[in-house]
Write a structure and sequence with these properties.
Blueprint lengths: L2 H15 L7 E2 L5 E2 L3 H14 L4 H24 L1
Antiparallel strand pairs: 1-2
Protein name: DUF6965 domain-containing protein
Pfam families: DUF6965 (PF22292)
Organism: Dyadobacter koreensis
Length: 79
């Protein structure tokens, strides 16, 4: 398993037990998640798994899931 696959698996494991935010919410200044959050996670994971190429692009694809994890962690700390 390479570093991208390992990080993706860790993120997916985190999201299995995390309390996901209510939609809509801003993921970053460019993306607002307006539909099912789990569907967003699944879509991003599929894109990461399906992409065959540069690790730089994989890192960019993982960025959205990292941002979502950061939002979930901030929500947990606020409670």
């Amino acid at each position: 398993m390479n570093a991208t696959e390992t990080e993706l698996q860790e993120l997916l494991t985190f999201f299995k037990t995390a309390k996901l935010p209510q939609v809509p919410f801003k993921l970053n200044k460019y993306i607002t998640v307006v539909n099912d959050v789990q569907r967003f996670i699944d879509s991003e994971a599929r894109a990461i798994r399906d992409y065959r190429g540069s690790e730089i692009v994989h890192d960019s694809l993982l960025k959205h899931l990292r941002e979502l994890k950061g939002i979930v962690q901030v929500d947990l700390e606020a409670k």
